[in-house]
């Protein structure tokens, strides 16, 4: 992975000073990794409330602690950006998971983005890279099979999770209107699956039994972590103006994904499923709120042709390959867990045996 | 009373069937050689048959016999034992799933393995039930994009399936037709998946354009719901062709339009009345009333075995127009009307040659 990056020369502007906001989301982690590995980058900055939680040490990273949603955060952020002399701002704070504390989540997504957008305007940065998701198009039976970037966003999202993301998109669109000199790259990622990513979908696949909707089997689209990192790195280091769907090749029906991961689907009739799953979500027994169930019912597959044409980005893994890889990793993880449990039991047995010997 | 005694010992359903057989033989001799036809004998047989039927239904022994079959404890035990020998339904389902589902679907959700599994049913409909005759199949190009435009009829869209099977079976290139399905189908559980897996794609301009740009062969029914819901009295009268979307599509993608006339489909479910008010709570576009449908229950949903003819016309090229013409409303309207009259002419010509609805 790193070898390939070193082999292919990326047209990087040496004067660019990259600032990443949101280091504890999957995309933030991935881009930190990539920037750290890139030999052409001397240093990069990160502004966030918490330092990166990964155990890895980032030598080139300069971390600045700051709360992005406190009152007056936009002015502070603009000041810091000016201090650094930032030219590229990467917005990767978009949450992976819906949250029960939706007021807080709304603050983070919408107010955080608002502050970032106004700071970007004030600090006169050159480029703004915004990480969004394809969920903003909304899941509906009226969607075309492949949604293009020009398609309208979901006008009335039911789930808070999606509503916040759509609002954040609108903030960024307003930045484009107010400050057209800033180069804005919006990347809409499909579901990212892999060993490190933890989103509502991958968490749903932690249990043996996965609830599904009776009689619905939507086509799903997955992106491997590696490909997501490739796309984001490309967008940060090279200049592309506009919105791009970053998605894996092809589609996988949900039922095939279930079989591939060796899970048991538990079909629930639609009218029962929404309230039942909402209750299970409120009790935190499931990672998916009932309001997000449309995404397990209808089509929301995005078209990745523009990214291929303009960004020259082509995912190495198809949706199916990415999912198989994820399922393999999950199985291995389960096996590891069992192995740990069994070895602990063994140790306990040995301990008991020793105790018995001593007492004997 | 003498006659009653005479028939008493034979009063069962088998006698009736024997008489029916004799009757049919007598009728056959009439068809072969009408001069040697014995009218008196046929009359006698008919009278005998009516007598037998009366006796059968008045004779309660016969019904008692059937009832005792089910109520006697011995028989019940036997039935229970037989039921116990049946395989576990879950195993059966798992095996069936292996047969009908493959690991792969194509990018529009079509599952070739599932398609092949259910193809015998459609082949039966094509060859035996509707006895479809295909004319002008050479007008369908062996490769490259083309747009089939056809009349739509018959409450349930059997015509789309028959065109698909017809092209697959009769065309030397064995092309896989993609048909566009109205989006109300995808609101429904099971129906949506079924349509998707056999190659149906939601009818919208984006999908049609993408399919044609990938050099697929696409069939569209511009009459839409208006076509399949037209009453029997308006059969073979083409409805309005949407708002010219078909022509716009052909201009945009430079795909030739192949006019298709389906004869015979309009009589499979003779529609007397349709109710939109009853259908609204179910999410259906309309509820059909045919002479058989709600009256005979599910039996009424069996289509009548009419004789079909599918006629493929000469391709109409659209190369001469430029992309600027897409916005020319008058041109689009004119071309749409021309296409409609071409298909109407094909239908009228074929109808004038047809002598019988059921025998062609």
Annotation keywords:
heterodimer; A: 360 residues; Rossmann fold; seven-stranded parallel β-sheet; 13 strands; 44% helix; 16% strand; globular; B: 360 residues; Glycerol-3-phosphate (1)-acyltransferase; 2 domains; seven-stranded mixed β-sheet; two-stranded antiparallel sheet; 14 helices
Mean pLDDT of chain B: 85
Strand order of the largest sheet of chain A: 3-2-1-4-5-6-11
Assembly level: heterodimer
Helix content of chain A: 40-55%
Stretches with pLDDT under 50, minimum 5 residues of chain B: 1-7
Query: Which regions of chain A have little confidence, pLDDT < 50, spanning 5+ residues?
Result: 1-10
Q: Over all CA atoms, what is the radius of gyration of chain A?
A: 22 Å
Q: Spell out the CATH superfamily of chain A.
A: NAD(P)-binding Rossmann-like Domain
Percentage of residues in DSSP E strands of chain A: 15-25%
Query: Tally the helices of chain B: what do you get?
Result: 14
CATH class of chain A: Alpha Beta
Could you please say which CATH topology of the largest domain in chain B applies here? Glycerol-3-phosphate (1)-acyltransferase
> What radius of gyration of chain B results from the CA coordinates?
27 Å
- CATH class of the largest domain in chain B, please? Alpha Beta
Number of domains of chain B: 2
Q: Please list the strands of the largest sheet of chain B in the order they lie side by side.
A: 1-9-6-2-5-3-4
CATH superfamily of the largest domain in chain B: Glycerol-3-phosphate (1)-acyltransferase
Largest sheet of chain A: 7 strands, parallel
């Amino acid at each position: 992975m790193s070898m390939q990056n070193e082999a292919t020369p990326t047209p990087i502007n040496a004067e660019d000073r990259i600032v990443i906001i949101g280091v504890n989301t999957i995309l933030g982690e991935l881009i930190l990794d990539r920037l750290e590995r890139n030999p052409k980058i001397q240093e990069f900055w990160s502004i966030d409330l918490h330092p990166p939680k990964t155990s890895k040490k980032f030598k080139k990273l300069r971390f600045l602690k700051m709360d992005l949603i406190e009152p007056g955060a936009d002015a502070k952020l603009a000041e810091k950006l000016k201090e650094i002399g930032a030219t590229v701002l990467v917005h990767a704070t978009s949450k992976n998971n819906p949250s029960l504390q939706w007021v807080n989540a709304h603050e983070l997504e919408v107010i955080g983005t608002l502050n970032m957008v106004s700071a970007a305007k004030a600090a006169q940065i050159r480029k703004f890279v915004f990480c969004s998701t394809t969920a903003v198009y909304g899941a509906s039976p009226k969607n075309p099979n492949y949604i293009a970037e020009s398609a309208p966003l979901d006008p009335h999202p039911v789930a808070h999770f999606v509503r916040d993301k759509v609002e954040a998109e609108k903030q960024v669109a307003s930045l484009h209107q107010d400050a057209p000199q800033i180069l804005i790259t919006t990347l809409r990622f499909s579901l990212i699956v892999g060993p490190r990513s933890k989103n509502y979908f991958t968490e749903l696949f932690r249990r043996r039994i996965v609830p599904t909707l009776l009689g619905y089997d939507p086509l799903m689209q997955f992106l491997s972590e590696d490909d997501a990192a490739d796309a984001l790195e490309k967008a940060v280091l090279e200049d592309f103006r506009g919105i791009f769907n970053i998605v894996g090749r092809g589609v996988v029906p949900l039922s095939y994904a279930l079989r591939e991961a060796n899970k048991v689907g538990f079909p629930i009739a639609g009218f029962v499923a929404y309230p039942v799953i909402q209750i299970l979500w409120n009790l935190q027994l499931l990672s998916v709120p009932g309001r997000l169930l449309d995404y397990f019912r209808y089509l929301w597959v995005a078209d990745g042709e523009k990214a291929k044409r303009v960004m020259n980005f082509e995912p190495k893994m198809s949706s199916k390959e990415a999912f198989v890889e994820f399922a393999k990793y999950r199985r291995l993880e389960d096996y590891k867990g069992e192995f740990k449990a069994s070895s602990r039991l063994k140790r306990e047995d040995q301990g008991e045996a020793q105790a018995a010997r001593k007492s004997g | 009373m003498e006659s009653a005694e005479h028939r008493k010992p034979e009063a069962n359903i088998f006698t009736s069937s024997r008489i029916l057989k004799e009757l049919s033989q007598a009728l056959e001799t009439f068809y072969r050689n009408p001069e040697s036809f014995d009218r008196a004998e046929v009359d006698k047989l008919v009278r005998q048959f009516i007598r037998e039927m009366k006796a059968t239904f008045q004779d309660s022994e016969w019904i008692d016999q059937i009832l005792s079959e089910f109520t006697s404890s011995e028989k019940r035990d036997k039935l229970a034992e037989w039921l116990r020998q049946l395989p576990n339904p879950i195993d059966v389902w798992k095996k069936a799933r292996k047969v009908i589902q493959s690991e792969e679907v194509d990018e529009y959700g079509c599952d070739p393995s599932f398609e092949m599994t259910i193809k015998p049913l459609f082949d039966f409909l094509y060859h035996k039930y509707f006895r479809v005759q295909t004319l002008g199949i050479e007008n369908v190009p062996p490769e490259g994009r083309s747009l089939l435009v056809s009349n739509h009829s018959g409450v349930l869209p059997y015509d789309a399936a028959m065109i698909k099977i017809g092209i697959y079976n009769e065309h030397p290139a064995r092309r896989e037709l993609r048909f566009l399905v109205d989006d109300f189908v995808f609101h429904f559980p099971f129906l949506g998946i079924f349509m998707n897996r056999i190659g149906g794609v939601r009818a919208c301009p984006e999908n049609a354009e993408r399919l044609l740009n990938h050099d697929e062969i696409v069939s569209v029914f511009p009459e839409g719901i208006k076509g399949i819901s037209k009453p029997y009295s308006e059969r073979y009268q083409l409805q309005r062709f949407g708002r010219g979307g078909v022509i716009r599509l052909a201009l945009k993608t430079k795909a030739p339009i192949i006019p298709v006339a389906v004869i015979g489909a309009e009589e499979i479910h003779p529609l007397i009345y349709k109710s939109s008010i009853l259908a609204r709570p179910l999410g259906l576009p309309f509820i059909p009333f045919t002479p058989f449908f709600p009256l005979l229950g599910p039996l009424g949903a069996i289509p009548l075995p009419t004789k079909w003819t599918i006629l493929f016309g000469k391709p109409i090229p659209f190369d001469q127009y430029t992309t600027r013409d897409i916005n020319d409303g008058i041109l689009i309207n004119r071309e749409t009307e021309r296409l409609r009259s071409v298909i109407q002419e094909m239908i009228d010509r074929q109808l004038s040659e047809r002598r019988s609805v059921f025998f062609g």
